[in-house]
TrEMBL record:
It comes from Paenibacillus terricola. This is Histidine kinase. Residues 348-400 form the HAMP domain. It holds the Pfam family His_kinase. It is a multi-pass membrane protein. The keyword Secreted does not apply. It is found in: Cell membrane.
Length: 620
């Protein structure tokens, strides 16, 4: 926490240009690195998928070729026992006559060549207790050793079916102890063995079989591991993946062939992924083997149930990605340099106007308000500069106006001192006239003089812009008395004002101009029956007053002229201006009138706040 606090304080003291540069650079760097990492991951995923598909196709093609070859061997092995020539050659053979054995060997060898003469087959024999028939150029199998081998046991256990004995040692399988230390071509073989129950149909159509108790001959067809893995070897040679390995596993997981070694099926060396592969029969697995992540593609052979596989380290599968990684690093480095340059230019572009503003503000501190910052562009910073320049001009203007206002205020104070006695003198004069009227028994005149004196006293004592509505209504009532004395029997006045508004502060004498207009312009031409209604009420959150008369009314053209200012109405304009200044531009005066039917003036002001009215304050 202390370290974080100190780092925060340090960051707070760093210059804005450096903050902006670092922030932009880090943001762009973060985006570039994320994009680079994402691109690398997608490329790796696609490349791994392509390698997986490629080796999967190789495994599948190898299985298809092997299945085709092994099925061909199986099919021919099923036809061989019913070959008439083979039956006669075996049954007519005299084991004690060497010449007869040689003749039989030639016949049987030709028969084997007819069935198994393909170059893909390493050797083919028919083994009897007396002799091994077949081409012995490549290899030779002693009958006694064969009938003691696991190959013979496999042929017996298969009960007439073709049995495959994968990858065995010739010397060990046929008990050739003298050959164990030697290296020879057929050291490792994969053989198919089958006990042959020979049958024959003679010329009379009689079906003949081998006599009971006769030991059945055994067919032995051998393939080399090189043939089984030929397609894998070709792919490995063409591939640039140095650690690629391949192989075929038997049903128990033992090795049939392997790129690393060829040997007997060994149970304890069964791969850890074998059970999953045996269950799925075909697919791909990623697994960590000996500390390396490996990609294994596998497929099960239909003919034998063996599983072919190719195993590749994921690192080798992605080795071509090294070039992409190098290009990506170079690209990221270039982008970071470009982003740093752009961040620097952007920081200068943003902070340069701010530095100018700071210098201008320091000059303003020294009283130099005439300074102007150069304006460039129409963005937020440009708008800020223009606002600063405009503010500077207004401050200078306000200073000048304030200085002139103080001069005028001093002049007004001097004038006020000179005229201070005039209202008091006028009030005393009206009071004197009131007492003269009383002494001469002129009651009406005396009341007019008293009302006028009280009106004058009320207005001169209150110097504020507003006063309570009750005072304004009292003043208006005295004014109406004077006007009613002038226009006898011409009009009557009614008041309908919400009592809650009595203490509300309103503009001084705001109703008087409208009442005066109603009398002079609306009712002057009438002889009697004039009505002036003054109302005040609360409408939701607004306070509304109205002055309504039943006089001559106002034409639409004159109303439009008053609103536009073309027709001068000093009192009305004065009141509306004061209302807008006190309460806001949303408030003011509306005129509703029809010629010959009267006029209604509606005055909207303030927002009704009961607490404020109760305290006697202004409602604005």
């Amino acid at each position: 926490m202390p370290m974080l606090k100190s780092m925060t304080e340090w960051a707070g003291n760093v210059k804005f240009r450096l903050k902006l540069f670092v922030s932009y650079f880090l943001l762009v760097s973060f985006i570039v690195i994320i994009l680079g990492f994402t691109y690398y991951q997608i490329s790796a995923s696609n490349m791994l998928r392509n390698v997986q598909e490629s080796i999967g196709n190789v495994v599948l093609n190898n299985n298809q070729l092997l299945d085709e070859k092994l099925r061909d061997i199986r099919d021919k092995s099923e036809v061989l026992p019913i070959d008439n020539e083979l039956y006669r050659a075996i049954m007519d053979m005299k084991s004690y006559d060497n010449e007869a054995l040689i003749i039989a060997d030639r016949k049987i060898t030709n028969i084997l060549f007819k069935y198994f003469g393909s170059d893909d087959i390493y050797s083919s024999f028919i083994v009897t207790p007396e002799y091994t028939f077949g081409n012995s150029v490549r290899m030779f199998v002693e009958p006694d050793n064969f009938f003691r081998s696991k190959l013979y046991r496999a042929s017996i256990e298969s009960q007439g079916d073709l049995a495959w004995v994968p990858t065995y040692s010739y010397a060990e399988a046929f008990h050739e102890d003298g050959m164990k230390e030697l290296s020879f071509e057929f050291d490792r073989l994969i053989s198919a063995v089958k006990e042959l129950n020979l049958t024959f149909i003679d010329d009379q159509g009689i079906f003949r079989t081998m006599p009971q108790g006769t030991k059945r001959p055994v067919l032995m067809v051998s393939l080399t591991p090189e043939f089984m893995g030929r397609l894998f070897t070709e792919y490995a040679q063409k591939s640039n993946m140095t650690h690629l390995s391949y192989g075929i596993l038997n049903k128990d997981g033992g090795s049939v062939i392997s790129s690393s070694s060829v040997g007997d099926s060994i149970e304890d060396r069964k791969p850890s992924w074998f059970d999953e592969a045996a269950a799925n029969k075909r697919g791909s697995i990623q697994q960590v083997i000996d500390g390396r992540k490996m990609l294994i593609s596998y497929s099960q052979m239909d003919s034998t149930g063996w599983i072919s596989y190719i195993e590749v380290p994921v690192a080798d599968a992605l080795q071509e990605l090294k070039a992409i990684r190098s290009y990506s690093i170079v690209f990221l480095a270039v982008m970071l340099v470009v982003s740093a340059l752009l961040a620097y230019l952007l920081s200068i572009m943003i902070t340069k106007p701010i530095i100018r503003l700071r210098k201008a503000m320091k000059m303003m501190e020294r009283g130099q308000f005439q300074v102007q910052v150069p304006e460039h562009g129409h963005d937020e910073i440009g708008e800020l500069v223009r606002t600063f320049n405009g503010m500077n001009v207004r401050i200078q203007t306000l200073i000048e106006e304030n200085y002139a206002s103080r001069l005028r205020q001093k002049e007004a104070e001097l004038m006020a001192l000179n005229l201070q006695l005039n209202p008091h003198f006028l009030y005393n004069t009206l009071t004197t006239l009131y007492w003269i009227a009383v002494e001469n028994n002129q009651q009406e005149m005396s009341r007019i003089m008293l009302s006028l004196a009280e009106m004058l006293q009320t207005t001169t004592r209150n110097k504020d812009e507003t006063w309570p509505l009750r005072i304004d209504l009292d003043w208006l009532d005295k004014y109406m008395y004077i006007m009613s004395s002038r226009f006898q029997n011409l009009f009557t006045v009614t008041y309908e004002v919400d009592e809650r508004l009595d203490k509300m502060h309103v503009p001084k004498l705001f109703l008087q101009p409208f009442v005066e207009n109603a009398i002079i312009h609306g009712l002057a031409e009438m002889e009697e029956g004039g009505i002036i209604a003054v109302k005040g009420w609360i409408d939701e959150d607004r306070v509304i007053f109205s002055v309504e008369d039943n006089g001559a009314g106002i034409s639409r053209e004159r109303i439009d002229g008053i609103k536009s200012g073309k027709v001068r109405s000093t009192g009305m304009a004065n009141v509306e201006k004061r209302i807008k200044l006190l309460y806001g531009a949303h408030y003011g005066i509306d005129i509703y009138s029809t010629e010959g039917q009267g006029t209604r003036i509606v005055i909207q002001m303030g927002t009704y706040q009961e607490s404020t009215i109760a305290e006697g304050g202004a409602s604005a």
